[in-house]
């Protein structure tokens, strides 16, 4: 039994303050593409061939950016396999297939996976469980921020256990949010010039099912998991999603 199945198979209430699995299944049933990219164009009522082409083109552009960055730092970057964690409808998975020829997209929502399996490109496979194999490149963008850290840290450790020696990572985490988001449940708010932090996690239980929640992570814990897995050569870049601040982490495991 994989770590993913172990955690996802339990009630989220057992390990975290909110059942985000139920939230995402509800989002996937109603607005799967908007759930991935919160642009009104991608709401189910607005979808057409042109809009869907734009949606998947954004995934190609995102992966092309990551390839340029990693090749700039690691001239031998040439992954033959990739794992797309939190693949959703396959926005990045499809692009990763063209880069590596072998990509596995994993997501907790079966409804998301149903969409992802439409017109699957060559080399792409989808499922709810982490495969028991190694990958040259592990990618997870705008995903962990929607998973309670109590579940996210073990999942990150499980991902790193599947990173091949010399393999690469592209990961994104939310870390804190501006004070103007103090009423938004789910994470830590930085207050004042002294960077005091407060948490409003308790408010999560009051939300209706199907809400998209943002969770903030501790960079110290993330670093410990990466370093312990041999991913010591890393760089961080700031991400800011409307006052929800985080970091994109790119790096490589020792060979």
From TrEMBL:
One of its GO terms (biological process) is methylation. The keyword Methyltransferase applies. InterPro entries: Methyltransf_25, SAM-dependent_MTases_sf. Signal peptide: none annotated. This is SAM-dependent methyltransferase. Residues 83-167 form the Methyltransferase domain. CDD domains: AdoMet_MTases (cd02440). GO terms for molecular function: methyltransferase activity. It comes from Brevundimonas intermedia. Keywords: Methyltransferase, Transferase.
């Amino acid at each position: 039994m994989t770590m993913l199945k172990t955690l996802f198979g339990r009630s989220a209430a057992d390990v975290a303050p909110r059942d985000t699995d139920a939230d995402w299944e509800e989002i996937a049933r109603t607005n799967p593409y908007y759930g991935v990219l919160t642009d009104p164009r991608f709401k189910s009522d607005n979808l057409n061939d042109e809009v869907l082409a734009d949606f998947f083109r954004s995934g190609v552009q995102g992966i092309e950016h990551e390839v340029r960055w990693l090749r700039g730092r690691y001239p031998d970057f040439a992954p033959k396999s990739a794992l797309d964690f939190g693949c959703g409808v396959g926005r990045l998975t499809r692009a990763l297939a063209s880069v590596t020829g072998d990509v596995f997209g994993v997501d907790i929502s079966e409804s998301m996976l149903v969409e992802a399996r439409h017109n699957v490109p060559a080399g792409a496979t989808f499922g709810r469980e982490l495969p028991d194999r190694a990958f040259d490149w592990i990618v997870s963008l705008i995903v962990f921020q929607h998973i309670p850290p109590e579940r996210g840290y073990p999942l990150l450790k499980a991902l790193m256990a599947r990173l091949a020696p010399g393999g690469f990572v592209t990961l994104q985490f939310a870390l804190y949010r501006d004070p103007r988001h103090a009423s938004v449940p789910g994470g830590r708010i930085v207050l004042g010039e002294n960077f005091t932090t407060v948490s409003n996690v308790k408010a999560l239980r009051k939300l209706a099912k199907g809400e998209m929640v943002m969770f903030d992570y501790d960079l110290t814990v993330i670093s410990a998991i990466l370093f312990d897995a041999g991913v010591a050569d890393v760089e961080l870049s700031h991400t800011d999603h409307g006052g929800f601040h985080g970091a994109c982490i790119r790096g490589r495991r020792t060979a």
